[in-house]
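Throughout our pipeline, every protein is held as a single compact record rather than as scattered files. Such a record has a labelled line for the sequence and another for the backbone structure tokens. This encoding replaces a full spatial description with a residue-level series of whole-number codes. For reference, a complete record is included directly beneath this paragraph.
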Amino acid sequence: MRKNTPQYYFLYKEVILKPVTGSRMVSIIQFLLLVAGIEQNPGPDQSNKKNLKIVHNNVCSLLPKLDLINNELHEYDIICISESHLDKSITDDQIKLNGFHKPIRLDRNRHGGGVTIYIKNSLHFIIRNDISVSNLELLWVEVRNCSNEKFLVGVLYRPPNSNSNIWDLFSESVDKALDCNLPIFLCGDFNCDMMSNSSNSFKKLLNRLNLENVVWESTNFTTQTGTCIDLCVTNRKNLIKSVTVLTPICSSHSPVSVEISFKTFKQHSFKRQIRDFKRADYEGLKNQLNDTDWDDVVFNSNNINDVYMNFVKTFESTVNRYIPTKTITVRPNDKPFYEQLDKKQDKTS
């Protein structure tokens, strides 16, 4: 045997080529799982997410920071942007994000204000202009999934020196939203510091509207201070699984992430092929592996990548001869690694 033979060759000889006993059988199966990538029972498809992630960020001009937003926030299902600084001269194609519907916009101008919402392609939505009001930078969208579950998501930008009547406009729009009898998740830069006494009147307003803020730490930073002004208010706090204030990515404002209980996909039963270890011929497998000329078939190269690929290819080919496969049906309510499968649904390939 060569002096530079890879270490896993000795692991192979230790695990596979010794007599097959009860404990040795377990080791063989573990080795199969490790090397050949075989799953005994993969369980339900994890792409059927039960939670949905919303993130809001005041970006202080969207267009020049689009790449940063795409890289840092792409994992979220809904991205809410305040202070987008857009106007009609900027097309939807110029600010599109891959994997999302075209942006939903309420623009002001290139110098300030404006809000935008991005929604993943997997979600359905309608723009709810009927619950918006004039002279208020508040955009509403109704989101639904394949099970026709719905909620309202909104994004607000309130300029720091707004007149007091802006809260009247805010109340008017929120009252319309509440009349829809849907869960509401309203994010945005409210420019109202929830950690300061100056926000007491706003807190009373939220209480009157039966809304509750879920963000209670600094979200906007200067060299000396931090304020809690990037908020998320809701009428269904029980649906919120987590709230996270992230590290700033493109402005002095931190993105605020809210995870809610909401299926983004309808779960279906699906077929998956697995190894049928109960019908395996381990003695035949051991003998075949023992008879293989590994020096000639595998360890005939000084390139570690070639050796590894030759080993896996030879080993997997042998496994396919002595360990059959079967097709199982994985159902949405199955527990992970569920063992007691309906035999009528199993089909030997």
